[in-house]
Design goal:
Helices cover 31% and strands 21% of the residues. The strands form six sheets. It has a six-stranded antiparallel sheet, with helices on both faces. β14 and β15 form a beta hairpin. α9 crosses α10 and α9 packs across α11.
């Protein structure tokens, strides 16, 4: 039907957004933070046909179902039908209207997420097309009932109970290990590409040697070489893998990102890269993101890192990761658009990227939690020079930096964030900048996807290690003392002292 619609006549706007994955992970973290919280899954039946249309759209009568005596007449659509271009947007606007009428408020940080607060009760509704995820505390049960009664007057809704399965993802609420994973979807992908019986690989990518890099010379140039790979489903496989990466598998991010850069020039080596990812997934099908309960973790914190001039065109790669109360909520790896002249400048660009993301995360957190103010967000990096420049201001060494970097200094002055140093071994963002050796990859993967308890600060005054002089750059193997303090920015096993991370 939509193929016959004319833009500007039969429809105008078609875009319809859904709640972000970061919002959904924040909801899962809040859901698992208190055993008394509940998160229900509501499904709207035939959602689109409830949405009224603003444009005048006519439709021919279905063949064999014409009204007798009016066979040449046409229908005027009052509400959207599946297949019309604007159906998804019309439904989104209709749902927003109903939720606002029910007493909910659309969040500015994520308009497809709605909140409602009365006294000590709260209700948070995240929407994804016709799926509604309803999070509330015991005091907010009456708010849930109020919204349910209003929606059921206008829509046909099924209450699927506690959210356990959605978007090809399982939600497991276990007191010891609450998590979400995509085991079923992963197995389906492996079967689709005939890799369900393959030998598992320990990492998703080779990190050294000729097989770890791609060059123009690896692309097929002869007709015979091009015919050999012509029928391989590169785009289909990459699309399936990106869905996994965006939802529950950050451990495959870098390997898939580097492979995706060559999708316009497919080759036999590119296919081997993709097969390697499948082999890794075959050995880790049940792996997902774990949401442990951390009572003392910071409301928000982030890590950033950069790999200097690591691409063929001398551009650098920036990676970052963000947590909320110890739970993973967002991560990304991106190529810095401009060529930078030093590793310090690359790190400053990565710092600016995470600072901008943090501004949105803070707005999202305060709206969802109903708080007015947050303490400065700690963001951790391992480049001393980039952190020192925040205090130095503009000098002849950094005056050529991109203007985005100066917003970091402004955010620090405004009390939105504070930048702190930590050793490279403890920087989780290193995971999103390059392919890593097996030992390093496994250590960071386990820390990122299964956030363990933060390390305990070691008091170097009582340290038994003669090699530790109390300075920030020394390495301490001293005994751990329970001083009632935690250093939230370290990986498991990192040794610390009162002077800084070792």
């Amino acid at each position: 039907m939509g193929c016959f619609q004319r833009p500007g006549v039969d429809y105008t706007e078609t875009y319809a957004s859904v709640m972000t994955t970061c919002t959904f992970r924040m909801m899962l973290q809040l859901y698992n933070s208190d055993a008394g919280n509940s998160m229900l899954h509501w499904d709207v039946s035939t959602a689109f046909i409830h949405a009224p249309l603003e444009e005048r759209v006519y439709m021919k009568q279905a063949s064999g179902h014409e009204v007798p005596g009016k066979e040449t007449w046409v229908y005027l659509l009052v509400k959207a039908l599946y297949g019309t271009k604007q159906a998804a947007r019309a439904w989104q606007l209709h749902l927003r209207k109903l939720l606002v009428q029910a007493g909910c408020k659309s969040m500015q940080a994520d308009p497809e997420t709605y909140t409602c607060r009365r006294g000590g009760g709260y209700l948070i509704i995240g929407t994804h097309v016709d799926d509604l995820f309803v999070l509330f505390n015991p005091e907010g049960k009456h708010l849930k009932d109020m919204v349910w009664q209003h929606l059921t007057k206008h829509l046909t809704i099924k209450d699927l109970g506690e959210a356990t399965w959605t978007l090809q993802m399982s939600i497991k609420r276990d007191e010891a290990e609450p998590s979400n994973s995509q085991e079923t979807f992963t197995l389906e992908v492996l079967r689709r590409f005939n890799m369900n019986a393959c030998k598992p690989a320990p990492t998703p990518a080779v990190d050294a040697g000729d097989e770890s890099t791609m060059r123009e010379s690896d692309c097929p140039t002869t007709p015979d070489a091009q015919r050999e790979i012509a029928d391989l489903p590169f785009l289909e496989l990459i699309g399936c893998l990106w869905w996994l990466v965006q939802m529950t598998r950050p451990d495959v991010f870098v390997a898939l990102q580097q492979a995706s850069k060559w999708v316009a020039k497919p080759s036999a080596k590119l296919w081997r890269w993709l097969v390697r990812i499948l082999k890794y997934l075959a050995g880790t099908t049940s792996m997902g993101i774990i949401f442990r309960r951390h009572s003392g973790a910071a409301p928000l914190q982030a890590y950033f890192d950069a790999a200097f001039a690591d691409t063929d065109d001398s551009k650098s790669t920036a990676g970052w990761i963000a947590h909320s109360h110890g739970a993973l909520i967002a991560y990304d790896s991106t190529t810095i658009k401009r060529v930078v002249s030093s590793s310090t400048e690359a790190e400053c660009n990565a710092m600016a990227i995470v600072a901008k993301e943090n501004t949105w995360h803070r707005r999202l957190y305060t709206e969802m939690r109903g708080v007015d103010k947050l303490p400065p967000t700690p963001i951790f990096g391992d480049n001393t020079a980039s952190i020192m420049m925040l205090d130095l201001g503009v000098t002849k060494r950094n005056r050529h930096f991109a203007i985005e970097w100066h917003l970091v200094r402004e955010r620090v002055d405004d009390g939105e964030l504070k930048v702190e140093w930590l050793p490279t071994e403890a920087n989780l963002a290193d995971f999103f900048t390059k392919k890593l050796p097996r030992a390093r990859f496994v250590a960071l993967r386990n820390q990122i996807m299964d956030a363990g308890e933060p390390a305990v600060i070691i008091n170097c005054v009582h340290c038994d290690d003669e090699g530790c002089d109390g300075s920030p750059l020394s390495y301490c193997y001293g005994r751990e003392l329970n001083m009632g303090r935690s250093y939230m920015g370290t990986a498991r096993g990192t040794r610390l002292c009162q002077h800084g991370a070792h």
